[in-house]
Specification:
71 residues; mainly beta
Length: 71
Amino acid sequence: HLTFYSLTRQALSIQLFDVSGRITSEKTTEVVNANSINDFSIAGMEDLERGIYILRITGANQNYFRKLIKE
């Protein structure tokens, strides 16, 4: 489950990579409410093996990366 604040309406690409760089999950969605908190989920997270993953969210003129650890 992802929660983040967005200043603008925009299309987003959400990708989850394993440590070898393989995409394990990918989703395209749209932020419809500007200046608000938005919630999204990544399908299949519960089925992933324990380990370190990299989350990448790409929007208009910005990239966001976050390391995730599944225990």
